[in-house]
Amino acid sequence: MTVTLFRAAAFGAALALAGCASNAPETRVTRFHLGQPIATAQISVEPRDPKARSSLEFGNYAGAVSAELAQHGFVITPGLARSELIAIIDITRGTREALAERSPVSVGIGGGSFGGNVGVSGGISFPLGRPRSREIVATELAVQIKRRSEGTVIWEGRALTEAQAGSPAADPAATARRLAAALFKDFPGESGRTVTIK
């Protein structure tokens, strides 16, 4: 009897987890690169705005991006090391309406654009204050990989997700991991195409 109850409980837990996974927010990802293999090397992860280096938010995203880069063979160096490659991180978080009001921004490689009404920001963020429980929070992670010696961007991408304010899916640390995983899935990804990742 106990074994039967245990199996039933385990099955119920598995169904619950499957339900949670299926309800995970979607992430829209767009990437640009030169269409050539990207040789892995030492890389440092830095914020677009140097003043953000000591912030908890940057720490969350730097950790998530570093973990993804390491899985693809890059060797992460301390932020002040002079690695040849740099991964520059920019985070934008705010209400869906605030992000939708931004103008599209053209980005570096090939003059491409991220399209829609969301582009790579120059460090813009929208303070949430105390979001209302029904408010939708949008978070965007943009990353550029560039050569330090010449400043050439060799890969860039952005990932955008939305979640209801106050929900577990809107948790900043969980959002950082979700966005980084989506952004670097199948790295370097198809250049110029927007894909939706669940």
UniProtKB/TrEMBL annotation:
It holds the Pfam family DUF4136. The keyword Zinc does not apply. The keyword Signal applies. Residues 1-24 form the signal peptide. InterPro entries: DUF4136 (IPR025411). Residues 48-189 form the DUF4136 domain. It comes from the Bacteria. Keywords: Signal. This is DUF4136 domain-containing protein. It comes from Sphingomonas oleivorans.
